């Protein structure tokens, strides 16, 4: 096949130095252009961090980055919140995210093991069904799910936001793990079986530990998606005590309007810290995840 | 007790044996989830799409009433379609062009590739969050960052987020700002193109522009197609930024009334859940149609090797 040939050629190429010949001026020009692009991309973020240390009237009047009056009290004021401490929002967000992660890791890996390694009647149909659910817009299930959770008395609780994850609703991660398990040598399973392992023991002691790279990807992206999610949290949570970070920010915005931008930007900055820490730690992993599967933050 | 070693025959027979019980056990969570949270709700919303339902009284059968209302009797629905269409038609090509251009420059073996790639990707990681939407509101405010910078060159900018002509533009800018994700995908694709092709073209005297159109574009077209499909699906579902910038109203003058936002208003503010379900199914049809058209035209420009 063409792709195999291409791979062969590439392997050959990669054993040699790969940099193309550069005219020195051109290389400088390329760096210059890239630096400009990078600056434009990062400027709003840097400006947000800088502004979060400025008094509100200075944010409006002065575009420079370095605050003339350093104002760390923005953070203290934002942390106090409008009616509820911001720490509650962070706690709630972390709780939901961690619960969703646990659910995804367990349920998706169980399903993936069955799809990748077990023979059963209807496997093809079940697998195809799972792939189809991957492409459905979440909107089609939104209204009936709300009705269902309303009937269960779960509106205004965290359950609708994490319980579905215990039932492998994120087909994307199932697919990711199926592909990963298929790349593991089957001999390992065989050896385990000959030693008397049941499928459960094979999963628990052989496949699950080896699945770690795929699990890390799952954990990172489940966290980012759950933490950044707004729509579901908006419709299910009404009680301020249950508000998450996005809802807390929105409440802040609604009640203070454009008057207290200092604390507002301080809390927005704070809200981006957990995903940023994750990104800095797992940069390679995240970029590779995006490159190979089209995952997005 | 005697130990029997399985023979090759035995092994092969055992391998083809079905493990239905085990499979059911492993798949039970997924199966329950599929029935309770996906298949069941889909059927339910298909039924609700033909009813009027407010969560309190029983659903009332309307026939095709909801769909007739969408296209005959609801200017806001048509407005939300228009807004979403502009967002998709302008935003998607723009962000893909930026992504491709930067990826091509980055792929030339420059030093600092990892740094540039991470820095440019970073906005994509944060993009859909409320925190960034809040920031955006501030950046495009009347006295926000953009106008402060414009003031340097003597231009008095408008309040971008409160003018109907420009509000949608700020959301498109937010979408384009996140071109890092498609760029990373392009970069992975560009790396698969063998350098020999370019060397051969150079020997034959092809210019860089010619090389781009005759080598890079055809070989990259599957990736471009993948990115295009992905961006289209995502654009239809954009919600948080429009909600935050317009305080949930879709304003000014309904200029940021995204499809998802209008669906939210009808379903969860007005509690017209039948209409919201009908809109959800209409979205499936519309998004499906757009993706299908995309797939149809793919055969004219996407090359999957020889």
UniProtKB/TrEMBL annotation, chain A:
InterPro entries named among the record's database cross-references: MetI-like, MetI-like_sf
Record's bilayer topology term: Multi-pass membrane protein
GO biological process, one term: transmembrane transport
Annotated localization: Cell membrane
Family annotation (CDD domains): TM_PBP2
Record domain ABC transmembrane type-1: where: 90-282
Keywords attached to this entry: Cell membrane, Membrane, Transmembrane, Transmembrane helix, Transport
Predominant localisation class: membrane
Source domain of life: Bacteria
GO cellular component, one term: plasma membrane
Keyword Membrane: yes
Family: Belongs to the binding-protein-dependent transport system permease family.
PANTHER family attached to this UniProt entry: ABC TRANSPORTER PERMEASE PROTEIN MG189-RELATED-RELATED, ABC TRANSPORTER PERMEASE PROTEIN YESQ-RELATED
The name this protein goes by in its record: Carbohydrate ABC transporter permease
Automatic annotation (TrEMBL), chain B:
TM annotation in the entry: 21-50, 85-106, 118-136, 167-190, 211-233, 273-297
Alphabetized UniProt keyword annotations: Cell membrane, Membrane, Transmembrane, Transmembrane helix, Transport
Gene Ontology, cellular component aspect: plasma membrane
Domain ABC transmembrane type-1: 81-294
The keyword Membrane is assigned to this record: yes
A Gene Ontology BP annotation from the UniProt entry: transmembrane transport
Bilayer topology annotation: Multi-pass membrane protein
CDD domains: TM_PBP2 (cd06261)
Main location as per UniProt: membrane
Cellular compartment(s): Cell membrane
Superkingdom: Bacteria
Biological source species: Kribbella sindirgiensis
Family, similarity comment: Belongs to the binding-protein-dependent transport system permease family.
Family matches, as InterPro entries: ABC_transporter_permease, MetI-like, MetI-like_sf
Name of this protein: Sugar ABC transporter permease
Pfam families referenced in this protein's UniProt entry, alphabetically: BPD_transp_1
